[in-house]
Automatic annotation (TrEMBL):
GO cellular component: cytoplasm
Source organism per UniProt: Azonexus hydrophilus
Subcellular location: Cytoplasm
Main location: cytoplasm
SUPFAM superfamilies associated with the record: YgfY-like
Pfam families, per database record: Sdh5 (PF03937)
Protein name per Swiss-Prot or TrEMBL: FAD assembly factor SdhE
Gene3D superfamilies: Flavinator of succinate dehydrogenase
Keyword Cytoplasm (UniProt): yes
Family label: Belongs to the SdhE FAD assembly factor family.
Highest taxon, organism lineage: Bacteria
GO biological process: succinate metabolic process
Length: 88
């Protein structure tokens, strides 16, 4: 991913209505994004485009990915681990 695209994605991670998402997404982007496969990176970009509450319900485990969101599962699992580390 080019630097300009990364910075644009980082801005989308920071500018969230829910502080929990802001922190989780930004830290994950900074610490784990480069370890994702290209498909996982694409899924992360699409996840960031979801509405805050829908995304938070996925990350917090209140909801699971449906069939249409199956490609999100590996990234959501990694985000959940990141979110748990933040809570501890």
């Amino acid at each position: 991913m080019e630097r300009q695209d990364y910075e644009r994605l980082r801005w989308r991670c920071i500018r969230r209505a829910l502080l929990e998402l802001d922190i989780t997404l930004t830290r994950f982007l900074d610490d784990g994004f480069d370890q994702l496969t290209e498909d996982e990176q694409a899924a992360f970009v699409d996840l960031v485009a979801l509405e805050d509450h829908d995304l938070w319900y996925l990350i917090s485990g209140k909801e699971e990915c449906n069939e249409d969101e199956a490609r999100f599962v590996p990234v959501v699992e990694k985000l959940r681990k990141c979110s748990v580390r933040l809570a501890n």
